[in-house]
Amino acid sequence: MTRRVLRTRLCDMLGIEYPILSAGMGPSLIGEKTGAPIELVVAVSEAGGMGVLGGAGFTVEELREQIREIKKLTDKPFGVDLLLPPAIVRAGDQEFDGPQEIALSDIITTLPKAHLDWMTQIKEELGLPDVETTVRAGSTTMRPHAAVKVCIEEKVPLFCAGLGNPGFMVEDAHRAGVKVLGIAGHTRNAGRIARAGADIVVAQGTEAGGHTGLVGSMALWPQAVDAAAPTPVLGAGGIGDGRGVVAALALGCAGAWVGTRFLASVEGGAIPAQKDAILKARDEDSKRSQLYTGKPSRATANKLHTLWEASGLEPLPFPTQVFLASAMVEMFQKAELNDYISPFSGQISGMIGEIKPAGQILEEMVEQAVEVLAHQLPARVEFS
After folding, report:
1. Residue 99 pLDDT
2. Would you state the pLDDT for residue 210?
3. Cα(163)–Cα(69) distance, rounded to whole angstroms?
């Protein structure tokens, strides 16, 4: 079969065949290092899109190793996604001279009494096991400047800021030939990221999994396109197949940034219980909450959400809330209480009925998008 053609100016900018990027999903709270591992990056890039490594779960040293491993496995362009929390970027990298691994059980003893008492009560009532995870110092999130430096030194084709404005590193990146992408959840931020010099802006609607805003994709995408012009915009949030890609293109976007559908792939970094949760979920089965990180994020709804809402507690600041949620999720996972754990995932979960190879997912998206553009729309719409 003749290979389909689906190109926009994004393809020429990034040196890719199709204007579809897999989102650089970071880790959940269960222990996997990333939701978008090397295998997913390579599969999407080799299929003609651009795979993006979720780098938030690694130490700075591990990040360099991951980048070099990707380069061994593919000569196609790829990206790396990091979190750039504004407060940490402003304060500078958080260096730690003590032990490089700290028991999560020790960290949670420093939480406010009300939060610790709530956790202890749940643990006792449900007979949950002890927390055994260790937290490593030197993560890319706590050392954003060092992590950015690695990406620039390794000449990563595309640097992606999954959180925060990457403007502070644009000049250095461009000198090294590295392009820069930033993600926005509302129009004002899309304009700010573009004015800061980013090469690409992702406009992410509230339908998306992970950290996400309040504005729906249909309203956000065209407004972000106008606000960021002439910087190209990728549509994100609610894209699960080729029809979503076409919708983004129709609203002025140069391509698509796709998360949940690639998380639920053979190569996606979610554990089996998380992928199963996506398969079982309907469109209305996700929840936007500050439970997991202290910042609003969307995940498949589960019983831990119910417990948190009933607690009446206020979320702790990022990343302290992450420690609390990580401990809870670990205990539920070890107890095999899967009704209490689920992945960061978007509202398109209801469209997903099968775990497939990422390359096949991309090919089917392209095939459907071309079919809609070339045949279905002309057959349904008359205009002059």
Report:
1. 60
2. 93
3. 25
**Whether the predicted pLDDT of 138 surpasses 60:** yes
Residue 327: inside a domain, yes or no? no
Residue 261, pLDDT > 80, answer: yes
Residue 30: the pLDDT is 64
d(CA 264, CA 378): 32
What's the structural domain count of the chain?
Answer: 1
Q: Is 237 contained in some domain?
A: yes
pLDDT tens digits, residue range 147-168? Answer: 999 999 999 999 999 999 999 9
CA torsion, ordered 186, 172, 87, 36, to nearest 10 deg: 70
Per-residue pLDDT reduced to its tens digit, 27-75: 877 667 899 999 999 999 999 999 999 999 899 999 999 999 999 999 9
The CATH number of residue 46's host domain is: 3.20.20.70
When the pLDDT of each residue in the chain is averaged and rounded to a whole number, the result is 94
Structural domain contains residue 304 = no
Show the domain range for 36.
Answer: 9-94+138-270+350-380
- Quickly state the pLDDT bin for 1 (edges 50, 70, 90): low
155 token code pair: 């000449």
Query: Of 198-207, 251-260, 334-343, which gets the smallest average pLDDT?
Result: 334-343
Residues above pLDDT 70, as percent of the chain: 98
- Residue 21 is assigned to a structural domain of this protein: yes
HEC letters along the chain: CCCCCCCCHHHHHHCCCCCEEECCCCCCCCCCCCCCCHHHHHHHHHCCCEEEEECCCCEHHHHHHHHHHHHHHCCCCEEEEEECCHHHHHHCCCCCCCCCEEEHHHHHCCCCHHHHHHHHHHHHHHCCCCCCCEEECCECCCCHHHHHHHHHHCCCCEEEEEECCHHHHHHHHHHCCCEEEEEECCHHHHHHHHHCCCCEEEEECCCCCEECCCCCHHHHHHHHHHHHCCCCEEEECCCCCHHHHHHHHHCCCCEEEECHHHHCECCCCCCHHHHHHHHHCCCCCEEEECCCCCCCEEEECCHHHHHHHHHCCCCCCCCHHHHHHHHHHHHHHHCCCHHHCCCECCHHHHHCCCCECHHHHHHHHHHHHHHHHHHHHHHHCCCC
